[in-house]
Amino acid sequence: MSSADILIIGGGIAGLSAASALANHGKVVVLEGEEAVGYHSSGRSATMLHYALGDPFVRALTLESRGFFEQPPEGFTDVPLGHRVPVLVHAREDELQALEALHTGIARFAELESVDERGLLELCPALRVGQGGAVAGIVDRNGIRLDPHAMLQGHVRALRRAGGELMTGARVRSIRQVGTEWQVETEAGDHYSAPILVNAAGAWADAVAELAGLDRIGLSPLKRTIITFDGPADTDTSGWPFTKTVADELYFAPESGRLFASPMDEVPTNPCDAQPDEYEVALAAHRVEERTTLKVDRIHSRWAGLRTFSPDKHLVAGFDANAEGFFWLAGQGGYGLQTSPVVARAVESLIAGAPWPSVAISADELSLRRFLA
Ligand SMILES: Cc1cc2nc3c(=O)[nH]c(=O)nc-3n(C[C@H](O)[C@H](O)[C@H](O)COP(=O)(O)OP(=O)(O)OC[C@H]3O[C@@H](n4cnc5c(N)ncnc54)[C@H](O)[C@@H]3O)c2cc1C
């Protein structure tokens, strides 16, 4: 039996950012079921930091996190954690009210410019504008395209530097509480114990709670699909913005010499190794051709990932009142990367007593008391 002060189940961005924040307070061991970190949601995202998703809760956590990406702690990474990409949200004539509402919603968090058809084309010449197409937009020139690989590796390094351990290929199959200790067994038959167990198992967080004999909170994993395809020949698309419809129908952006796009699908799914379905792949191509002048002649690659939401769509970070030492860190939905810095510090505060990091969000708002009796 290996003993630690804190065991964390899940080597995605949630588990690893919490691990690096907690590692200076005691011995932290992260157990990841896959052979590599970030294999599931954290390695399959659109990798953006922007304010056009979520609500004031998500936007506040995002705003309080962005400093970490712009200026990571000394020694955290040798490469930038992201680079600036403008974020353009566009609307048809019949969507102008929604665009105005979004403008009002984001204005507290980011500096926005309004653009007309000409401005839309200056930013993204492929947009279909005018009759039946986009007529107006808002742009935030300070979006960030994140580098999840650099983020995950930075946290792993910080964890190890502080004496913590990451065990990959360590899928947890049983959990029991003996006295004040949580005892965990992996499928390989290894045993770990600690007085604090952090459940950062992403889409599997409800299943992990059940392993511990606890109630689920009712998480919903929703599948989202991304395709990549060639941009127009002889056109440098690298400076195009992350471009999104005001309704959640389509986004696309430059991706390593090509373009990526998502139909923003939200297909309810059981926790799994998510795979793209033909329907959503075709829908992505269809919506690109509907909203732009681009042709999707050949799909270069495709993938899908799970965005896992709590019942009120706000993430959960807090102890389970029904089981001493059992801590939930789940339900990051479609914003788990861009909010991870401040959320990790909230976890550090709740578990290790560090100062509360957020002026906008209280511990009660993250607590799971809102779901469990
Ligand atoms: C298509 C798509 C686009 C997205 N775009 C963005 C975006 O632009 N910006 C943004 O901020 N977020 C985005 N997200 C959301 C973001 O990716 C997630 O919120 C975030 O990755 C969740 O991190 P996690 O650590 O909770 O989950 P995961 O990365 O899934 O990590 C959970 C880990 O737990 C492990 N695990 C589960 N059960 C066990 C067990 N029994 N034993 C051991 N290990 C276990 C799993 O193997 C997994 O590695 C997007 C997601 C998708 C799918």
Bound molecules: flavin-adenine dinucleotide
| Unreliable stretches covering 5 or more consecutive residues | none
Class from secondary-structure proportions: alpha/beta
* CATH fold type of the largest domain: FAD/NAD(P)-binding domain
Mean pLDDT: 97
How many domains would you count in the coordinates?
2
Helix content: 25-40%
| Number of beta-strand segments | 20
Measure the end-to-end span: 33 Å
SSE arrangement, N to C: EEHEEHEHEHEHEEEEEHEEEEEHEEEHH
CATH class of the largest domain: Alpha Beta
Largest sheet composition: 10 strands, mixed
In DSSP terms (H or I, runs of 4 or more residues), the helix count works out at 9
Question: Beta-strand level of the residues, as a percent range?
Answer: 25-35%
Identify the CATH homologous superfamily of the largest domain. Answer: FAD/NAD(P)-binding domain
Protein name: FAD-binding oxidoreductase
Organism: Sphingomonas telluris
InterPro entries: FAD-dep_OxRdtase, FAD/NAD-bd_sf
Pfam family, one: DAO
Fold and architecture overview:
This is FAD-binding oxidoreductase. It holds the Pfam family DAO. Residues 5-347 form the FAD dependent oxidoreductase domain. InterPro entries: FAD-dep_OxRdtase (IPR006076), FAD/NAD-bd_sf (IPR036188). With 373 residues, the chain is α/β, with parallel strands linked by helices. The chain has helices at residues 13-22, 56-70, 96-107, 117-123, 148-161, 205-211, 278-291, 340-352, 363-366; strands spanning 2-3, 6-9, 28-31, 48-49, 82-92, 113-116, 134-146, 165-167, 172-178, 181-186, 191-194, 196-199, 220-229, 242-245, 251-255, 258-262, 267-268, 299-309, 316-319, 326-330. The strands form three sheets. Strands 4, 5, 6, 7, 13, 14, 15, 16, 17 and 18 form a ten-stranded mixed β-sheet that branches. The chain is elongated, with a radius of gyration of 21 Å. The protein starts with a strand and ends in a 7-residue tail after the last helix. The relative contact order is 0.20. Residues 9-15, 31-34, 38-42, 44-48, 171-172, 200-204, 208, 224, 226, 305-307, 332-338 line the site of flavin-adenine dinucleotide.
